[in-house]
Amino acid sequence: MKRALYSGMASTLALVAATSVSAQAAEQGHSTPSVRAPNEVSLEEVIVTAERRSSRIQDTPLALTVVDGEKLRQGGNQGLTELAQRIPSLSFAQSFGISQIFIRGVGNNFFSPGGDPGVATYADGVYLSDQEATAVAFLDLDRIEVLRGPQGALYGRNATGGAVNLISARPSEVFEGRAGAQIGDFGRKQVDALVSGPIGGGVTARASVQYRTLSGFTRNELAGTPGAKRRGDAEDSLAGRLQLTAPLGEGRLRLIANGYTQDDTGPALKILADPFPQPAELLFGVTPSRDARSFKSEGAENRRDVWSVTGQVDYPIGDTELVVIADTRGSDRAITYDQDGTERRVSTTTLDTESTQTSFEAYLKGSTGRIDWLAGATWLKFSQSRTTLVDGVLPGAFLNPSLPVTFPFPYAFAGGGEVTTEAVAAYADGKLEISDTFALRLGGRYSDDRKRASEFLTFLAPTLRGNQRDSWGEWSGKAGIDFTPSDGTLLYASLARGFKSGALNVGAFTPAVAPEINVTVEAGARLSGSGWILNLTGYTSDYSDLQIVQVGPLSQILANAASARINGVELESGLKVSPRLTLNVSGSWMDAEFGAFVSTDQRRGFKAFDVSGNRLPLTSRWQGSLVAQYQAPLRDGGRLDLDAALQWRSEYFFTEFNTPDARQGGFVRFDLGAAWTSPDERWVVNVFGRNLSDRRVLSSLAVVSPLLGSVRVASLEPPRHVGIGVERRF
C-alpha cells in the first residue's frame, strides 16, 4: 500500500512537471494542441467577518489570517495542526486529546475543569468552552479566521492571546453536492459527502457527513498480548452536520445541528525514558520504549460523543440589523491509557469528562453617517465534570521507608469534581470616519464570570470533599486609528486590553487563581498591489498574572506567575510570480519571557528556581512557512494544481524551567500536494504527502505527579504519511 501511494504521488508530480514544460513551450510559440484558458492561481480577494461585518481582508485593520476550508479538506484536514504550520506566532499542542492553542505566547497549559483557554475558539459565532469538543467544528468548513492579539470587545471572553473562528459552509442557493473517498498509509480511510440547495418556499438546506479511520502512527511493542492494541494514534470517527435556512419575515433563520462520535485507542501517550529509575523499573526492572515511533501499552480506550444545536436569526430593523444566536451543546469523553509505558501493569489512568453548555447572544449593528457601530450582550452557562482514576502499584519505600523498594504496594487514586460557570457580558464597538483617509475605532466590554465547584480526592485515606466559589468582573477593550493614504495601503495602530477569567483547580483543593490581563500595543500595515500583498505587524504585550500549571505531590497545582513581557514582529506576504505560480511567505519573531517568577521543579528535588527571563512554554523565537502554488492547464481542458509547503520553527520548551528534558529542538518539515481536475470540473483526484522530511516532533509533553514517578508523558506529531483521494461533484 505505502509503495503504491508513493509511486502514485511521484507519477502525478512527474505529470505536473511535464505539463509545465509543455505550457512553457506553448508560451514560446511551439506548436501544441489548443487548450482552454487556465483557471489561474491568483491572490484572491478574501471577504471576512472578523469584525462581525463583511469586509475585504486587506481593508481590515487587524492581525488576521484566513485559511481556506476546501484546501484543508483536500490536503488531509489536519485541523488545528494545519494552522500551526501556516500562521505566524501560532502553536498547537494536543495533550491527552485536548486541544491547546497558543498565539503570541498566550494560551493554556491547564486543561482540567475550572480553567479556561487563553485563545478563544468560536464555531459559527458560538464560543466553545470545552476544548475536548472541537472536532466536529472542522467538518465542511468554508474558512477559518485567526485573529492574533487580545480581542477586547467582540470576542472578549478568554481571548487574551487571540481568537479562532471556525466558519462552516452555508447552504447554497443552487443544488450542488459531492462524494469522495481518501486512502493512505497507516490504514487511513476517509469517506465524505454533502448535498446542498433549495428545498422550496425559500428554504435551503445542507447535509454533510464524514467517516474517518486510521490504524495509527505509533507501533505498540506489546501488540499480541491480551488487551493490547496493535498501534496508537488510531482514529475511528463519524461526524455529521445538518443545516437549514428559511425566511423569517424580512429576516432569515439559520439552524445548525452537529454530531460527532469517536471510539478508538486514541492518542499514543508515549512515556519518555528517564535517566533515573521510574517505579516500573524499581519494581520489575522494566522500562518504557526508547524507539521514537513505538511505545508500550497494555491497553487503551478513547470514546467521545459531541452534539450541538445552534439557531441564528438575522433581522433588519430600519437601517439596522439585529442578530440573535442561541446554542446548546454537550460532550461525553472517556480516555484510558497505560501510564507507566511498560509491559507490567504498574499504573493505568482513566479520565472521564462530561460537559454541557447553553449560550445566548444578541447584538444590533448599523451605520449612521460616518459612524459604523455594533452593540450587544451575551450570556453563557457551562458545566463540566471530570473524574481522574489511577490504579496500580508503587514501590513500597515510596510510602513507608521500612519497606523494600521492590515491594509492590497497591493503591487507587481518585480525584475531580464538577464546576459550573455562568458568564454575562455587554459590549460595544464602533468606527468613526474622521475623513476619507483617517478613522478612529473604539470598543469595550465588561465581563462578569462566576464559578462554583464541588470537588473530591481519595488516596490512602477517607475521601476528602469540599466546595468553593469565586467571581471576577473585568473590562476589556480596544482603541485604534486607521490611515488609508491610497488604494492598497492601510496603516493602523491600536491599544488593547484582554481579560481571561480566574480559575478553580477542581480536585486539587487549592485556592482560586486570579484572572490574566494582557495589555498590547500593536502597529501594522496592509499593503497590496497588482499581483502582490505584504502585511506587517509589530507588537509589545504586558502579560500579568498568567496562570501556570505546577505539579504537586498528587495532582496539578495552578498558580499565577507575576508577569511576562512579549515582543514580536509578524509578516505575511503573497506574490503572483506568473499567471500560474503564486508564492506565499509568512513568519514571525517573538521574544516571550517571564518577569519575576519563582517556581518549584519536582523533577529536581522540589527545589525552587528563579525562572525570570526564561521563555514562555511552547513559544519559538522564530517560525515561518513558504507555500508555493502552481496551476497548469492540460491539453484536454483539465488542469493540475501543485501545492508545496515548507515550515520551519526554532526550539521551544514545554515548562517554565526551559530544561533539556522538556525541550523540542528546531525543525524543518515539508508537505506536498497535487490535484487533477477534469475538464468539466466534475472529477477531482488529489494526492498529498505530509512531513516528507519525517521529522520527529514532540507536540506536547506533560510531567505527571511524583506519585507516578514524575514520568514525562508526550505526544508526537505524525511521521511521514501520504494519501490519495477521488471526488465526484454534481
Overview in brief:
The protein is mainly beta. The two termini are 30 Å apart.
Describe this structure in words.
This protein is mainly beta and 730 residues long. It contains five helices and 43 strands. The protein has a 22-stranded antiparallel barrel. The protein has a five-stranded mixed sheet with strand order 3-8-9-6-7. Strands 14-13-18 form a three-stranded mixed sheet, with no helix packed on it. The protein is globular and about 80 Å long. The N terminus is likely disordered.
Keywords, separated by commas or semicolons:
730 residues; mainly beta
Return residue spans where pLDDT drops below 50 for at least 5 consecutive residues. 1-42
- What count of helical segments does DSSP give? 5
Q: What fraction of residues sit in β-strands?
A: over 45%
Secondary-structure content class: mainly beta
- Mean of all residue-level pLDDT scores: 87
Q: Indicate the percent of residues in helices.
A: under 10%
Summarize the biggest pleated sheet: 22 strands, antiparallel, barrel
Shape: globular
Distance between the termini: 30 Å
What's the Cα radius of gyration?
Answer: 26 Å
How many E strands? 43
